[in-house]
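Quick start: read one record
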Amino acid sequence: MPGCFKKTLFALASLISFVSSILIVVAMGTPKWMTGKILCKTGADLVNATDPELVKFIGEIYYGLFRGGKIRQCGLGGRRSKFTIFPHMVKKLNTGLHVMIIMFLCVAIFFSLVSFGFCILNAIKVPYRAIKGPAGVCLWNFLAGGFIVLAVTSFMAAVKLHHLTERIANFRENVFQFVILEERFEDCFWLCVASATAHAVNLLLIAISGIHFPKIKTKTEEANVTAEDIMY
Protein backbone atom coordinates (compact mmCIF):
# COMPACT_ATOMS: atom_id res chain seq x y z
CA MET A 1 0.00 0.00 0.00
CA PRO A 2 2.73 2.57 0.81
CA GLY A 3 4.38 1.86 -2.56
CA CYS A 4 1.13 2.46 -4.41
CA PHE A 5 0.55 5.63 -2.38
CA LYS A 6 4.00 6.99 -3.30
CA LYS A 7 3.46 6.18 -6.97
CA THR A 8 0.20 8.12 -6.89
CA LEU A 9 1.91 11.13 -5.31
CA PHE A 10 4.71 11.14 -7.89
CA ALA A 11 2.18 10.76 -10.72
CA LEU A 12 0.23 13.74 -9.35
CA ALA A 13 3.46 15.73 -8.99
CA SER A 14 4.39 14.99 -12.61
CA LEU A 15 0.98 16.22 -13.77
CA ILE A 16 1.34 19.41 -11.74
CA SER A 17 4.83 20.05 -13.20
CA PHE A 18 3.54 19.60 -16.75
CA VAL A 19 0.57 21.91 -16.14
CA SER A 20 2.94 24.47 -14.63
CA SER A 21 5.04 24.55 -17.80
CA ILE A 22 1.88 24.97 -19.92
CA LEU A 23 0.75 27.89 -17.74
CA ILE A 24 4.05 29.68 -18.29
CA VAL A 25 3.91 29.18 -22.05
CA VAL A 26 0.34 30.52 -22.18
CA ALA A 27 1.27 33.49 -20.01
CA MET A 28 4.26 34.40 -22.18
CA GLY A 29 2.24 34.27 -25.38
CA THR A 30 -0.72 36.35 -24.18
CA PRO A 31 -0.57 40.19 -24.23
CA LYS A 32 -2.52 40.72 -21.03
CA TRP A 33 -0.03 41.02 -18.20
CA MET A 34 -0.99 44.61 -17.38
CA THR A 35 -3.94 46.82 -18.14
CA GLY A 36 -4.40 50.46 -17.21
CA LYS A 37 -6.02 53.78 -17.88
CA ILE A 38 -4.00 56.57 -19.48
CA LEU A 39 -4.75 60.30 -19.49
CA CYS A 40 -3.79 62.42 -22.48
CA LYS A 41 -2.28 65.21 -20.40
CA THR A 42 -1.33 67.39 -23.36
CA GLY A 43 -4.87 67.37 -24.80
CA ALA A 44 -6.47 68.01 -21.41
CA ASP A 45 -4.14 70.95 -20.76
CA LEU A 46 -4.81 72.48 -24.19
CA VAL A 47 -8.54 72.80 -23.57
CA ASN A 48 -8.16 73.25 -19.80
CA ALA A 49 -10.48 70.26 -19.23
CA THR A 50 -12.32 70.01 -15.92
CA ASP A 51 -13.35 66.82 -14.12
CA PRO A 52 -16.49 66.01 -16.19
CA GLU A 53 -14.59 66.65 -19.44
CA LEU A 54 -11.58 64.51 -18.51
CA VAL A 55 -13.47 61.39 -19.59
CA LYS A 56 -12.87 62.41 -23.21
CA PHE A 57 -9.11 62.27 -22.57
CA ILE A 58 -8.86 58.96 -20.69
CA GLY A 59 -7.82 55.96 -22.78
CA GLU A 60 -6.76 52.38 -22.08
CA ILE A 61 -3.61 50.33 -22.46
CA TYR A 62 -2.70 46.65 -22.17
CA TYR A 63 0.53 44.78 -22.81
CA GLY A 64 2.45 41.59 -22.18
CA LEU A 65 6.04 40.53 -22.65
CA PHE A 66 6.01 40.72 -26.44
CA ARG A 67 3.06 42.85 -27.62
CA GLY A 68 0.11 44.96 -26.56
CA GLY A 69 -2.26 47.71 -27.60
CA LYS A 70 -3.81 50.99 -26.48
CA ILE A 71 -6.73 53.31 -27.10
CA ARG A 72 -5.72 56.96 -27.34
CA GLN A 73 -8.31 59.48 -26.20
CA CYS A 74 -7.18 63.02 -26.98
CA GLY A 75 -10.53 64.74 -27.30
CA LEU A 76 -11.28 63.60 -30.87
CA GLY A 77 -12.52 60.10 -30.16
CA GLY A 78 -10.71 56.88 -29.46
CA ARG A 79 -7.94 55.67 -31.75
CA ARG A 80 -6.86 52.03 -31.42
CA SER A 81 -3.33 50.91 -32.09
CA LYS A 82 -1.25 47.81 -31.50
CA PHE A 83 2.46 47.52 -30.86
CA THR A 84 5.21 44.96 -30.37
CA ILE A 85 7.89 45.14 -27.70
CA PHE A 86 10.59 43.73 -29.97
CA PRO A 87 12.64 44.91 -31.74
CA HIS A 88 12.24 48.70 -31.42
CA MET A 89 10.28 49.44 -28.21
CA VAL A 90 12.51 47.33 -25.99
CA LYS A 91 15.37 49.79 -26.65
CA LYS A 92 13.39 52.51 -24.86
CA LEU A 93 12.60 50.27 -21.89
CA ASN A 94 14.95 48.72 -19.36
CA THR A 95 16.25 46.22 -21.93
CA GLY A 96 18.30 44.11 -19.56
CA LEU A 97 15.48 43.69 -17.05
CA HIS A 98 12.89 42.87 -19.71
CA VAL A 99 15.12 40.24 -21.33
CA MET A 100 15.90 38.77 -17.90
CA ILE A 101 12.17 38.29 -17.23
CA ILE A 102 11.81 36.30 -20.45
CA MET A 103 14.97 34.28 -19.72
CA PHE A 104 13.82 33.47 -16.19
CA LEU A 105 10.52 32.11 -17.53
CA CYS A 106 12.26 30.06 -20.23
CA VAL A 107 14.55 28.50 -17.62
CA ALA A 108 11.51 27.85 -15.40
CA ILE A 109 9.83 25.98 -18.28
CA PHE A 110 12.95 23.84 -18.70
CA PHE A 111 13.13 22.91 -15.01
CA SER A 112 9.37 22.25 -14.92
CA LEU A 113 9.77 19.72 -17.73
CA VAL A 114 12.80 18.19 -15.98
CA SER A 115 10.71 17.86 -12.82
CA PHE A 116 7.95 16.27 -14.92
CA GLY A 117 10.37 13.65 -16.26
CA PHE A 118 11.92 12.86 -12.90
CA CYS A 119 8.52 12.47 -11.25
CA ILE A 120 7.57 9.89 -13.88
CA LEU A 121 10.86 8.04 -13.38
CA ASN A 122 10.29 7.91 -9.63
CA ALA A 123 6.71 6.75 -10.13
CA ILE A 124 7.65 3.79 -12.37
CA LYS A 125 11.06 3.17 -10.71
CA VAL A 126 13.14 3.21 -13.87
CA PRO A 127 16.89 3.08 -13.08
CA TYR A 128 18.88 6.07 -14.27
CA ARG A 129 22.17 7.81 -13.52
CA ALA A 130 21.32 11.26 -12.20
CA ILE A 131 20.12 12.98 -9.06
CA LYS A 132 17.21 10.75 -8.16
CA GLY A 133 14.65 10.13 -5.49
CA PRO A 134 12.59 12.72 -3.62
CA ALA A 135 15.63 14.95 -3.07
CA GLY A 136 16.21 15.29 -6.80
CA VAL A 137 12.58 16.05 -7.56
CA CYS A 138 12.54 18.66 -4.78
CA LEU A 139 15.61 20.28 -6.31
CA TRP A 140 14.05 20.68 -9.76
CA ASN A 141 10.77 21.98 -8.34
CA PHE A 142 12.61 24.43 -6.13
CA LEU A 143 14.62 25.73 -9.10
CA ALA A 144 11.55 26.02 -11.33
CA GLY A 145 9.53 27.83 -8.68
CA GLY A 146 12.48 30.05 -7.81
CA PHE A 147 12.97 31.24 -11.38
CA ILE A 148 9.24 31.97 -11.71
CA VAL A 149 9.39 34.05 -8.53
CA LEU A 150 12.39 35.92 -9.93
CA ALA A 151 10.49 36.63 -13.16
CA VAL A 152 7.37 37.84 -11.34
CA THR A 153 9.41 40.00 -8.96
CA SER A 154 11.40 41.49 -11.84
CA PHE A 155 8.22 42.33 -13.75
CA MET A 156 6.75 44.04 -10.69
CA ALA A 157 9.99 46.01 -10.30
CA ALA A 158 9.82 47.05 -13.96
CA VAL A 159 6.23 48.26 -13.53
CA LYS A 160 6.55 49.99 -10.17
CA LEU A 161 10.16 51.19 -10.09
CA HIS A 162 10.98 51.70 -13.77
CA HIS A 163 7.52 52.98 -14.81
CA LEU A 164 7.13 50.38 -17.55
CA THR A 165 3.52 51.28 -18.38
CA GLU A 166 4.30 54.98 -18.77
CA ARG A 167 7.26 54.26 -21.01
CA ILE A 168 5.19 52.02 -23.25
CA ALA A 169 2.28 54.49 -23.37
CA ASN A 170 4.58 57.34 -24.46
CA PHE A 171 6.59 55.36 -26.99
CA ARG A 172 6.89 57.35 -30.24
CA GLU A 173 4.45 60.01 -28.97
CA ASN A 174 6.02 63.22 -30.22
CA VAL A 175 3.02 65.52 -29.65
CA PHE A 176 0.99 64.08 -26.79
CA GLN A 177 2.11 63.07 -23.33
CA PHE A 178 0.25 60.35 -21.44
CA VAL A 179 -0.01 59.94 -17.68
CA ILE A 180 -0.91 56.66 -16.00
CA LEU A 181 -4.04 56.90 -13.88
CA GLU A 182 -4.52 53.23 -13.04
CA GLU A 183 -2.56 49.98 -13.34
CA ARG A 184 -3.80 46.45 -12.77
CA PHE A 185 -2.08 43.07 -13.01
CA GLU A 186 -4.09 40.79 -15.26
CA ASP A 187 -4.69 37.04 -15.69
CA CYS A 188 -1.39 36.18 -17.39
CA PHE A 189 0.59 37.64 -14.51
CA TRP A 190 -1.44 35.59 -12.06
CA LEU A 191 -0.91 32.48 -14.20
CA CYS A 192 2.80 32.76 -13.41
CA VAL A 193 1.99 33.17 -9.72
CA ALA A 194 -0.21 30.04 -9.94
CA SER A 195 2.65 28.19 -11.64
CA ALA A 196 5.01 29.04 -8.78
CA THR A 197 2.35 27.93 -6.30
CA ALA A 198 2.04 24.62 -8.17
CA HIS A 199 5.72 23.90 -7.58
CA ALA A 200 5.26 24.70 -3.88
CA VAL A 201 2.44 22.13 -3.83
CA ASN A 202 4.81 19.65 -5.49
CA LEU A 203 7.35 20.18 -2.71
CA LEU A 204 4.62 19.37 -0.20
CA LEU A 205 3.65 16.20 -2.09
CA ILE A 206 7.26 15.03 -2.26
CA ALA A 207 7.64 15.67 1.47
CA ILE A 208 4.56 13.53 2.12
CA SER A 209 5.97 10.77 -0.09
CA GLY A 210 9.02 10.58 2.19
CA ILE A 211 6.91 9.62 5.20
CA HIS A 212 7.38 5.96 6.11
CA PHE A 213 4.05 4.41 6.88
CA PRO A 214 3.94 1.26 9.02
CA LYS A 215 3.31 -1.89 7.04
CA ILE A 216 0.16 -3.79 7.80
CA LYS A 217 0.98 -7.36 8.84
CA THR A 218 -1.54 -10.12 9.20
CA LYS A 219 -1.52 -11.92 12.55
CA THR A 220 -0.43 -15.54 12.19
CA GLU A 221 -2.15 -18.20 14.23
CA GLU A 222 -0.03 -19.98 16.79
CA ALA A 223 0.62 -23.59 15.89
CA ASN A 224 -0.17 -26.24 18.46
CA VAL A 225 2.82 -28.57 18.68
CA THR A 226 2.09 -32.04 19.94
CA ALA A 227 4.30 -34.98 20.87
CA GLU A 228 3.43 -36.72 17.62
CA ASP A 229 4.66 -33.72 15.59
CA ILE A 230 8.00 -33.85 17.37
CA MET A 231 8.41 -37.58 16.64
CA TYR A 232 7.81 -37.08 12.92
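The two ends are 40 Å apart (CA to CA).
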